[in-house]
Amino acid sequence: MAEKIHINLVFIGHVDHGKSTTVGRLMYDTGAIDEQQMRKLKDKAAQLGKAGFEFAYVMDNLKEEQERGVTIDLSHKKFETDKYYFTIIDAPGHKDFVKNMITGASQADAGVLCVAANDGVNAQTKEHVFLAKTLGVGQIIVAINKMDLQNYDEKRFNEVKDEVSKLLTSVGYKPDEVKFVPMSSLKGDNVAKKSENMTWYKGPILLEAIDDLKEPEKPTELPLRMPIQDVYNITGIGVVPVGRIETGVMKAGDKVVAVPGREGKQIPGEVKTIEMHHEQMKQAGPGDNVGISVKGFGKKDLARGDVLGHPNNVPTVAEEFTAKMVVLNHPSVITVGYTPVFHIHTSQVACQVIEIKEKTVGTTSTPNPDFIKNGESATVVLKPVQPLVIEKQGEIPQMSRFAIRDSGTTVAAGMCIDLKPKSM
Protein backbone atom coordinates (compact mmCIF):
# COMPACT_ATOMS: atom_id res chain seq x y z
CA MET A 1 0.00 0.00 0.00
CA ALA A 2 2.60 2.54 1.07
CA GLU A 3 4.65 2.10 -2.14
CA LYS A 4 1.85 3.53 -4.29
CA ILE A 5 1.18 7.23 -4.54
CA HIS A 6 -1.84 8.31 -2.51
CA ILE A 7 -4.56 10.49 -4.06
CA ASN A 8 -7.71 11.85 -2.41
CA LEU A 9 -10.51 11.71 -4.96
CA VAL A 10 -13.84 13.46 -4.40
CA PHE A 11 -17.04 12.56 -6.26
CA ILE A 12 -19.20 15.64 -6.80
CA GLY A 13 -22.32 16.60 -8.74
CA HIS A 14 -26.03 17.29 -8.49
CA VAL A 15 -28.28 15.18 -6.23
CA ASP A 16 -29.34 11.87 -7.85
CA HIS A 17 -26.81 12.10 -10.66
CA GLY A 18 -25.27 8.83 -9.51
CA LYS A 19 -22.22 9.72 -7.40
CA SER A 20 -22.65 7.05 -4.74
CA THR A 21 -23.70 4.43 -7.27
CA THR A 22 -20.61 5.20 -9.38
CA VAL A 23 -18.32 4.76 -6.37
CA GLY A 24 -20.07 1.52 -5.38
CA ARG A 25 -19.84 0.13 -8.92
CA LEU A 26 -16.17 1.10 -9.19
CA MET A 27 -15.34 -0.61 -5.91
CA TYR A 28 -17.37 -3.70 -6.69
CA ASP A 29 -15.98 -4.13 -10.22
CA THR A 30 -12.39 -3.67 -9.02
CA GLY A 31 -12.88 -6.24 -6.25
CA ALA A 32 -12.66 -3.77 -3.35
CA ILE A 33 -16.02 -5.19 -2.20
CA ASP A 34 -16.88 -8.85 -2.51
CA GLU A 35 -19.98 -10.67 -3.81
CA GLN A 36 -21.23 -11.45 -0.35
CA GLN A 37 -21.19 -7.83 0.87
CA MET A 38 -22.89 -6.82 -2.35
CA ARG A 39 -25.60 -9.47 -1.98
CA LYS A 40 -26.38 -8.22 1.53
CA LEU A 41 -26.70 -4.66 0.26
CA LYS A 42 -28.91 -5.82 -2.60
CA ASP A 43 -31.29 -7.59 -0.20
CA LYS A 44 -31.34 -4.57 2.07
CA ALA A 45 -32.15 -2.24 -0.86
CA ALA A 46 -35.02 -4.50 -1.90
CA GLN A 47 -36.35 -4.63 1.68
CA LEU A 48 -36.36 -0.84 1.90
CA GLY A 49 -38.13 -0.61 -1.47
CA LYS A 50 -35.02 0.92 -3.04
CA ALA A 51 -34.01 -1.71 -5.59
CA GLY A 52 -31.15 -0.42 -7.71
CA PHE A 53 -29.65 1.50 -4.78
CA GLU A 54 -27.38 -1.35 -3.71
CA PHE A 55 -24.23 0.22 -5.19
CA ALA A 56 -24.97 3.53 -3.51
CA TYR A 57 -25.22 1.71 -0.18
CA VAL A 58 -21.55 0.82 -0.38
CA MET A 59 -20.83 4.43 0.58
CA ASP A 60 -24.11 5.46 2.17
CA ASN A 61 -23.74 3.42 5.27
CA LEU A 62 -25.63 5.68 7.62
CA LYS A 63 -29.04 4.17 8.36
CA GLU A 64 -30.86 7.43 7.66
CA GLU A 65 -29.15 7.72 4.28
CA GLN A 66 -30.24 4.24 3.32
CA GLU A 67 -33.84 4.96 4.16
CA ARG A 68 -33.92 8.36 2.47
CA GLY A 69 -31.65 7.40 -0.41
CA VAL A 70 -29.41 10.48 -0.08
CA THR A 71 -25.82 10.97 1.01
CA ILE A 72 -25.58 13.18 4.10
CA ASP A 73 -22.10 12.91 5.48
CA LEU A 74 -18.76 12.35 3.85
CA SER A 75 -17.60 8.80 3.72
CA HIS A 76 -14.07 7.70 3.03
CA LYS A 77 -13.16 4.39 1.41
CA LYS A 78 -9.91 3.21 -0.04
CA PHE A 79 -9.25 1.40 -3.28
CA GLU A 80 -6.28 0.84 -5.56
CA THR A 81 -5.54 0.96 -9.26
CA ASP A 82 -2.36 -0.29 -10.92
CA LYS A 83 -0.67 3.01 -10.23
CA TYR A 84 -2.35 4.76 -7.32
CA TYR A 85 -3.84 4.17 -3.93
CA PHE A 86 -6.99 6.26 -3.53
CA THR A 87 -9.05 7.51 -0.66
CA ILE A 88 -12.46 8.14 -2.20
CA ILE A 89 -14.53 10.92 -0.72
CA ASP A 90 -18.18 10.68 -1.75
CA ALA A 91 -19.61 14.17 -1.29
CA PRO A 92 -23.29 14.89 -0.88
CA GLY A 93 -25.03 16.54 -3.83
CA HIS A 94 -28.14 17.50 -1.91
CA LYS A 95 -28.14 21.23 -1.30
CA ASP A 96 -28.88 20.87 2.44
CA PHE A 97 -25.59 19.05 2.79
CA VAL A 98 -23.27 21.33 0.84
CA LYS A 99 -21.22 22.23 3.90
CA ASN A 100 -20.09 18.61 4.15
CA MET A 101 -19.27 18.71 0.45
CA ILE A 102 -17.03 21.74 1.08
CA THR A 103 -15.06 19.80 3.68
CA GLY A 104 -14.74 16.97 1.16
CA ALA A 105 -13.65 19.08 -1.77
CA SER A 106 -11.11 20.95 0.32
CA GLN A 107 -9.47 17.60 1.13
CA ALA A 108 -9.31 16.38 -2.45
CA ASP A 109 -6.49 16.26 -4.98
CA ALA A 110 -8.80 15.46 -7.89
CA GLY A 111 -12.51 15.20 -8.57
CA VAL A 112 -14.99 13.17 -10.60
CA LEU A 113 -17.99 15.27 -11.59
CA CYS A 114 -21.08 13.10 -12.21
CA VAL A 115 -23.62 14.58 -14.61
CA ALA A 116 -26.73 12.58 -15.55
CA ALA A 117 -27.19 12.33 -19.33
CA ASN A 118 -30.98 12.61 -19.01
CA ASP A 119 -30.74 15.77 -16.92
CA GLY A 120 -27.62 17.73 -17.89
CA VAL A 121 -26.17 20.60 -15.86
CA ASN A 122 -28.18 21.52 -12.76
CA ALA A 123 -27.94 24.01 -9.89
CA GLN A 124 -25.68 21.86 -7.72
CA THR A 125 -23.57 20.87 -10.73
CA LYS A 126 -22.68 24.56 -11.06
CA GLU A 127 -22.16 25.14 -7.35
CA HIS A 128 -19.96 22.05 -6.95
CA VAL A 129 -17.79 22.88 -9.97
CA PHE A 130 -17.25 26.42 -8.72
CA LEU A 131 -16.39 25.24 -5.23
CA ALA A 132 -14.07 22.52 -6.51
CA LYS A 133 -12.12 25.14 -8.44
CA THR A 134 -12.02 27.63 -5.57
CA LEU A 135 -11.06 24.98 -3.05
CA GLY A 136 -8.11 23.90 -5.13
CA VAL A 137 -9.24 20.69 -6.83
CA GLY A 138 -6.89 21.03 -9.78
CA GLN A 139 -7.84 18.00 -11.88
CA ILE A 140 -11.33 16.92 -12.82
CA ILE A 141 -12.88 14.02 -14.77
CA VAL A 142 -16.45 14.31 -16.05
CA ALA A 143 -18.56 11.16 -15.81
CA ILE A 144 -21.63 11.53 -18.03
CA ASN A 145 -23.77 8.96 -16.28
CA LYS A 146 -27.13 7.24 -16.91
CA MET A 147 -26.40 6.84 -20.64
CA ASP A 148 -28.67 3.75 -20.50
CA LEU A 149 -31.64 6.13 -20.07
CA GLN A 150 -30.66 7.83 -23.35
CA ASN A 151 -30.24 4.58 -25.34
CA TYR A 152 -26.47 5.13 -25.22
CA ASP A 153 -26.87 7.89 -27.81
CA GLU A 154 -23.66 9.59 -28.94
CA LYS A 155 -25.49 12.79 -29.91
CA ARG A 156 -26.87 13.17 -26.37
CA PHE A 157 -23.41 12.57 -24.91
CA ASN A 158 -21.99 15.38 -27.07
CA GLU A 159 -24.80 17.78 -26.07
CA VAL A 160 -24.13 17.24 -22.36
CA LYS A 161 -20.39 17.40 -22.97
CA ASP A 162 -20.77 20.84 -24.60
CA GLU A 163 -22.98 22.06 -21.78
CA VAL A 164 -20.47 20.91 -19.12
CA SER A 165 -17.52 22.32 -21.12
CA LYS A 166 -19.08 25.80 -21.04
CA LEU A 167 -19.52 25.51 -17.27
CA LEU A 168 -15.93 24.32 -16.75
CA THR A 169 -14.57 27.16 -18.88
CA SER A 170 -16.57 29.73 -16.92
CA VAL A 171 -14.81 28.82 -13.66
CA GLY A 172 -11.34 28.41 -15.13
CA TYR A 173 -10.92 24.69 -15.93
CA LYS A 174 -9.68 23.87 -19.46
CA PRO A 175 -12.14 21.42 -21.08
CA ASP A 176 -9.50 20.15 -23.51
CA GLU A 177 -7.53 18.85 -20.50
CA VAL A 178 -10.61 17.13 -19.06
CA LYS A 179 -11.68 13.56 -19.89
CA PHE A 180 -15.42 13.08 -20.52
CA VAL A 181 -16.56 9.47 -20.02
CA PRO A 182 -20.01 8.27 -21.17
CA MET A 183 -21.21 5.58 -18.76
CA SER A 184 -23.95 3.89 -16.78
CA SER A 185 -22.98 3.11 -13.19
CA LEU A 186 -26.09 1.09 -12.52
CA LYS A 187 -25.49 -1.16 -15.52
CA GLY A 188 -21.70 -1.08 -15.26
CA ASP A 189 -20.98 0.49 -18.66
CA ASN A 190 -17.51 2.11 -18.95
CA VAL A 191 -16.95 2.33 -15.17
CA ALA A 192 -14.39 -0.43 -14.62
CA LYS A 193 -15.29 -2.46 -17.73
CA LYS A 194 -15.51 -1.32 -21.34
CA SER A 195 -19.09 -1.15 -22.57
CA GLU A 196 -20.40 -3.04 -25.61
CA ASN A 197 -23.21 -0.48 -25.80
CA MET A 198 -21.10 2.54 -26.76
CA THR A 199 -18.72 1.33 -29.47
CA TRP A 200 -18.64 4.92 -30.78
CA TYR A 201 -16.65 6.00 -27.71
CA LYS A 202 -12.91 5.53 -28.13
CA GLY A 203 -11.63 7.24 -24.96
CA PRO A 204 -10.69 5.81 -21.55
CA ILE A 205 -13.25 4.23 -19.23
CA LEU A 206 -13.59 5.80 -15.75
CA LEU A 207 -11.09 3.46 -14.10
CA GLU A 208 -8.46 4.27 -16.76
CA ALA A 209 -9.15 7.99 -16.53
CA ILE A 210 -8.63 7.86 -12.75
CA ASP A 211 -5.42 5.90 -13.16
CA ASP A 212 -4.25 8.53 -15.63
CA LEU A 213 -4.55 11.45 -13.19
CA LYS A 214 -1.36 13.43 -12.62
CA GLU A 215 0.43 12.83 -9.37
CA PRO A 216 -0.51 15.61 -6.93
CA GLU A 217 2.27 17.89 -5.76
CA LYS A 218 3.10 17.16 -2.16
CA PRO A 219 3.96 20.37 -0.31
CA THR A 220 6.32 18.60 2.11
CA GLU A 221 8.73 21.54 2.30
CA LEU A 222 6.05 23.86 3.71
CA PRO A 223 5.47 24.09 7.49
CA LEU A 224 3.28 21.39 9.07
CA ARG A 225 -0.45 22.15 9.03
CA MET A 226 -3.03 19.56 10.06
CA PRO A 227 -6.59 20.86 10.47
CA ILE A 228 -8.50 18.72 12.96
CA GLN A 229 -11.67 17.12 11.68
CA ASP A 230 -12.67 15.21 14.82
CA VAL A 231 -11.28 14.53 18.27
CA TYR A 232 -11.82 11.09 19.77
CA ASN A 233 -11.17 10.09 23.34
CA ILE A 234 -10.09 6.45 23.28
CA THR A 235 -9.78 4.46 26.49
CA GLY A 236 -6.21 3.42 27.15
CA ILE A 237 -4.85 5.70 24.43
CA GLY A 238 -6.19 9.12 25.34
CA VAL A 239 -7.00 11.99 23.02
CA VAL A 240 -6.83 11.15 19.31
CA PRO A 241 -7.19 14.05 16.87
CA VAL A 242 -8.12 12.97 13.34
CA GLY A 243 -7.58 15.01 10.19
CA ARG A 244 -5.76 15.40 6.92
CA ILE A 245 -2.26 16.76 6.77
CA GLU A 246 -2.35 19.65 4.30
CA THR A 247 1.32 20.61 4.27
CA GLY A 248 4.60 19.55 5.85
CA VAL A 249 5.58 16.28 7.47
CA MET A 250 4.69 14.85 10.88
CA LYS A 251 6.79 12.18 12.55
CA ALA A 252 6.16 10.06 15.62
CA GLY A 253 7.99 11.77 18.50
CA ASP A 254 7.46 15.30 17.11
CA LYS A 255 6.61 18.15 19.45
CA VAL A 256 3.45 19.85 18.17
CA VAL A 257 1.12 22.70 19.11
CA ALA A 258 -2.59 23.04 18.44
CA VAL A 259 -4.19 26.47 17.96
CA PRO A 260 -6.42 28.29 18.68
CA GLY A 261 -7.53 25.62 21.20
CA ARG A 262 -10.73 25.88 23.23
CA GLU A 263 -9.41 28.74 25.36
CA GLY A 264 -7.82 30.58 22.45
CA LYS A 265 -4.29 29.65 23.43
CA GLN A 266 -1.57 27.32 22.16
CA ILE A 267 -1.74 23.74 23.39
CA PRO A 268 1.59 21.88 23.36
CA GLY A 269 1.87 18.12 22.94
CA GLU A 270 4.02 15.30 21.66
CA VAL A 271 3.03 12.85 18.92
CA LYS A 272 3.17 9.29 20.23
CA THR A 273 1.73 7.35 17.28
CA ILE A 274 0.37 8.06 13.79
CA GLU A 275 -2.20 5.79 12.21
CA MET A 276 -3.77 5.73 8.73
CA HIS A 277 -6.49 3.25 7.73
CA HIS A 278 -5.72 1.31 10.96
CA GLU A 279 -2.04 0.90 10.15
CA GLN A 280 0.71 2.54 12.20
CA MET A 281 3.11 4.82 10.36
CA LYS A 282 6.40 6.40 11.42
CA GLN A 283 5.57 9.57 9.54
CA ALA A 284 2.80 11.14 7.48
CA GLY A 285 2.72 13.89 4.87
CA PRO A 286 0.42 16.02 2.73
CA GLY A 287 -2.80 14.29 1.70
CA ASP A 288 -2.68 11.66 4.44
CA ASN A 289 -5.85 11.27 6.51
CA VAL A 290 -4.49 10.27 9.90
CA GLY A 291 -5.39 9.71 13.52
CA ILE A 292 -2.64 10.60 16.00
CA SER A 293 -2.28 9.99 19.71
CA VAL A 294 -0.73 12.97 21.45
CA LYS A 295 0.77 13.20 24.91
CA GLY A 296 -0.23 16.43 26.64
CA PHE A 297 -3.58 17.06 24.93
CA GLY A 298 -6.60 16.93 27.25
CA LYS A 299 -10.01 16.05 25.86
CA LYS A 300 -11.36 19.54 26.60
CA ASP A 301 -8.41 21.26 24.89
CA LEU A 302 -9.23 20.69 21.23
CA ALA A 303 -12.09 20.83 18.79
CA ARG A 304 -12.77 20.49 15.08
CA GLY A 305 -11.26 23.48 13.27
CA ASP A 306 -8.13 23.70 15.42
CA VAL A 307 -4.88 23.27 13.49
CA LEU A 308 -1.72 21.40 14.47
CA GLY A 309 1.74 22.63 13.59
CA HIS A 310 5.29 22.48 14.91
CA PRO A 311 6.34 24.83 17.76
CA ASN A 312 8.94 26.54 15.53
CA ASN A 313 6.24 27.53 13.03
CA VAL A 314 2.91 27.83 14.80
CA PRO A 315 -0.23 28.04 12.59
CA THR A 316 -1.38 31.66 12.21
CA VAL A 317 -4.41 32.84 14.17
CA ALA A 318 -5.79 35.91 12.41
CA GLU A 319 -6.98 39.05 14.18
CA GLU A 320 -8.29 40.15 10.78
CA PHE A 321 -7.51 39.20 7.19
CA THR A 322 -7.76 40.58 3.66
CA ALA A 323 -9.32 38.32 1.06
CA LYS A 324 -10.12 38.21 -2.63
CA MET A 325 -13.57 36.77 -3.02
CA VAL A 326 -16.25 36.16 -5.63
CA VAL A 327 -19.95 36.52 -4.88
CA LEU A 328 -21.79 33.53 -6.32
CA ASN A 329 -25.27 33.48 -5.03
CA HIS A 330 -26.40 36.16 -2.60
CA PRO A 331 -30.11 37.09 -2.46
CA SER A 332 -29.35 40.83 -2.31
CA VAL A 333 -26.04 42.62 -1.72
CA ILE A 334 -23.08 42.30 0.66
CA THR A 335 -22.15 45.40 2.64
CA VAL A 336 -19.87 46.29 5.54
CA GLY A 337 -21.22 44.67 8.72
CA TYR A 338 -22.35 41.45 6.99
CA THR A 339 -21.31 38.50 9.21
CA PRO A 340 -21.81 35.12 7.50
CA VAL A 341 -20.23 31.75 8.36
CA PHE A 342 -16.89 31.02 6.72
CA HIS A 343 -15.84 27.45 5.97
CA ILE A 344 -12.06 27.33 6.06
CA HIS A 345 -10.34 23.90 6.08
CA THR A 346 -12.35 22.11 8.84
CA SER A 347 -13.32 25.25 10.68
CA GLN A 348 -16.66 27.06 10.56
CA VAL A 349 -16.42 30.57 11.99
CA ALA A 350 -18.49 33.71 11.48
CA CYS A 351 -16.47 36.62 10.08
CA GLN A 352 -17.57 40.22 9.70
CA VAL A 353 -16.95 42.34 6.62
CA ILE A 354 -15.24 45.46 8.02
CA GLU A 355 -14.13 47.07 4.75
CA ILE A 356 -14.70 46.59 1.02
CA LYS A 357 -11.50 47.89 -0.57
CA GLU A 358 -12.44 47.49 -4.21
CA LYS A 359 -14.66 45.51 -6.51
CA THR A 360 -14.12 44.23 -10.03
CA VAL A 361 -16.78 43.59 -12.64
CA GLY A 362 -15.33 42.17 -15.84
CA THR A 363 -12.30 44.43 -16.37
CA THR A 364 -13.52 47.49 -14.43
CA SER A 365 -12.45 48.13 -10.84
CA THR A 366 -14.20 50.46 -8.41
CA PRO A 367 -12.41 51.52 -5.19
CA ASN A 368 -14.35 51.50 -1.86
CA PRO A 369 -17.78 50.50 -3.23
CA ASP A 370 -20.84 50.55 -0.94
CA PHE A 371 -21.72 46.94 -1.71
CA ILE A 372 -20.91 43.87 -3.81
CA LYS A 373 -23.38 41.54 -5.48
CA ASN A 374 -23.60 38.33 -7.58
CA GLY A 375 -20.97 37.90 -10.23
CA GLU A 376 -18.68 40.54 -8.73
CA SER A 377 -15.30 39.90 -7.21
CA ALA A 378 -13.85 42.08 -4.49
CA THR A 379 -11.00 42.65 -2.08
CA VAL A 380 -12.42 42.79 1.44
CA VAL A 381 -11.14 43.03 5.00
CA LEU A 382 -12.70 40.50 7.39
CA LYS A 383 -12.69 40.08 11.14
CA PRO A 384 -13.32 36.62 12.62
CA VAL A 385 -15.79 36.57 15.53
CA GLN A 386 -13.84 33.72 17.20
CA PRO A 387 -10.14 32.80 16.92
CA LEU A 388 -9.48 31.31 13.49
CA VAL A 389 -6.45 29.79 11.76
CA ILE A 390 -5.93 30.93 8.18
CA GLU A 391 -2.77 31.47 6.13
CA LYS A 392 -1.84 33.73 3.22
CA GLN A 393 -2.27 32.38 -0.30
CA GLY A 394 1.34 33.38 -1.05
CA GLU A 395 2.73 31.39 1.90
CA ILE A 396 0.55 28.30 2.47
CA PRO A 397 -2.12 28.30 -0.26
CA GLN A 398 -3.64 25.03 1.03
CA MET A 399 -4.74 26.90 4.18
CA SER A 400 -5.91 30.13 2.53
CA ARG A 401 -9.14 29.13 0.78
CA PHE A 402 -12.67 29.53 2.09
CA ALA A 403 -16.33 29.32 1.15
CA ILE A 404 -19.04 31.50 2.68
CA ARG A 405 -22.44 30.03 3.45
CA ASP A 406 -25.62 31.75 4.50
CA SER A 407 -29.11 30.31 5.02
CA GLY A 408 -28.32 27.04 3.28
CA THR A 409 -26.46 28.19 0.19
CA THR A 410 -22.91 28.99 -0.78
CA VAL A 411 -22.89 32.74 -1.11
CA ALA A 412 -19.25 33.39 -2.00
CA ALA A 413 -15.81 31.83 -2.10
CA GLY A 414 -12.30 33.16 -2.01
CA MET A 415 -8.86 33.17 -0.48
CA CYS A 416 -6.83 35.07 2.08
CA ILE A 417 -4.12 37.32 0.55
CA ASP A 418 -2.95 39.16 3.67
CA LEU A 419 -3.55 39.06 7.41
CA LYS A 420 -2.88 40.62 10.77
CA PRO A 421 -1.90 37.88 13.26
CA LYS A 422 -3.52 37.76 16.66
CA SER A 423 -1.11 37.88 19.58
CA MET A 424 -1.57 34.62 21.47
What does this structure look like?
It is a single chain. With 424 residues, this protein is α+β, with helices and mostly antiparallel strands. It has 3 domains: 5-211, Rossmann fold (3-Layer(aba) Sandwich); 226-309, Translation factors (Elongation Factor Tu (Ef-tu), domain 3, Beta Barrel); 318-421, Translation factors (Elongation Factor Tu (Ef-tu), domain 3), CATH 2.40.30.10. It has 8 helices and 22 strands. The strands form 4 sheets. A 6-stranded mixed beta sheet has the order 2-3-1-4-5-6, sandwiched between helices. The protein starts with a strand and ends with a strand. The model is unreliable at 62-66, 69-75 and 92-99 (pLDDT under 50).
Concise synopsis of the structure shown:
By secondary structure, the protein is an alpha+beta fold.
Can you tag this structure with a few keywords?
22 strands; 424 residues; 19% helix; 6-stranded antiparallel beta barrel; 8 helices; Elongation Factor Tu (Ef-tu), domain 3
Count of β-strands? 22
CATH topology of the largest domain: Rossmann fold
Strand content: 25-35%
Number of domains: 3
Instruction: Detail the poorly predicted runs.
Output: 62-66, 69-75, 92-99
CATH class descriptor of the largest domain: Alpha Beta
Radius of gyration: 22 Å
Tally of individual helices: 8
CATH hierarchy: architecture of the largest domain: 3-Layer(aba) Sandwich
Corresponding CATH superfamily of the largest domain:
P-loop containing nucleotide triphosphate hydrolases
Strand order of the largest sheet: 2-3-1-4-5-6
Q: What is the overall pLDDT average?
A: 84
Gap between N and C termini: 41 Å
Shape: globular
- SSE succession: EHHHHEEHEHEHEHEEEEEEEEEEEEEEEE
What structural class is derived from the secondary structure elements? alpha+beta
Give a short account of the largest sheet: 6 strands, mixed
Q: Provide the helix percentage.
A: 10-25%
